[in-house]
Amino acid sequence: MASTSRLPPTAWDSARRTARNLESQLDAKLTQYSSLASAIARGEDGASSSSAPAWPSSNHKDALLEQGDASHPPAAKAQSLESEITSLLSSLSSSLSTLSHFLDDPEIPPSPVQHHAVQRHREVLADFERDFRRCRDNVRHALDRRELVGRVRGDIDAYRAAQVGSDEDRLLAERGRLDNSHSMIDGTLEQAYATLTDFRGQRQMLNNVTARMSNTAAQVPALNGIMTMIGRRRRRDSIVMGCIIGCGTVLLLMYITR
Predict the structure, then answer these.
(1) In whole angstroms, what is the distance from residue 196 CA to residue 38 CA?
(2) Which of 25, 114, 115, 143 qualifies as a FRET site for 70, CA 20 to 30 Å off?
(3) TM spans, by residue (predicted)?
(4) Tens digits of per-residue pLDDT, 186-220?
């Protein structure tokens, strides 16, 4: 009679094992999902080794292996994990429905232990759903922040690139002006050197003329005397002409003022 008042151990145990297996997978996936949210917030593609325990359990091996794969972008990894967790939650809910169906069987009344086990599974499912919603919000906020930071960095890089180009243009323009100034200065210096060369040539020519005249005067002594006489006569004529002009001016003034 005692054996007929209990559920068949094979069906019940199989359903319990299925539920526990799903809970174990959900625990690993949620741990990975939470680590991914933290990694995205730190600007990484996957969770760092510091976020994992020193001796990972068998439930976390798959999660750690997937976290170490940086070949997928964070958004794709988050979407994949979200789909997997949603599927596992649905499977766990179906498994709990199966366990609840066993409890509702009027032919085989369940024991209090079985009631407690189903209630515990339901509480675990509720905890998983709550943790999943929290992690999903964290991941989405981290992705939004990552995208915003990426846009800001892109704008900053574009602004810096534009500034660098503008600075280079200004430097090139300034260099062109300096080159033009140097060219003008070089042209002015060339003209000055040419003028100096002309002056030196003229001075040399005048020195040659003076030397020739001196040589000519030395060769013809009488010519020097004639030149001296001519100079004296010119001075005398100038004095006489000045006296005549002065006397005429005085007489004219006296005539006017009379």
Answers:
(1) 82
(2) 25
(3) 239-257
(4) 888 889 888 988 888 888 898 888 888 777 766 66
Whole-number Å distance between alpha carbons of 123 and 113: 15
* 109 φ/ψ angles, rounded to the nearest 5 degrees: -65, 135
Do 37 and 136 belong to one domain? yes
Assigned domain for 75 exists = yes
Q: Which tokens is 103 given? A: 């409890």
Report pLDDT digits (tens) over 50-94.
Answer: 333 333 344 443 443 344 444 457 778 888 888 888 888 888 888
- Looking at the structure of the chain, the number of domains it has is 2
Establish if 251 belongs to a structural domain.
Answer: yes
Find the length of the chain: 258
Kindly report the pTM of this predicted structure.
0.44
Question: Is residue 239 included in any domain, yes or no?
Answer: yes
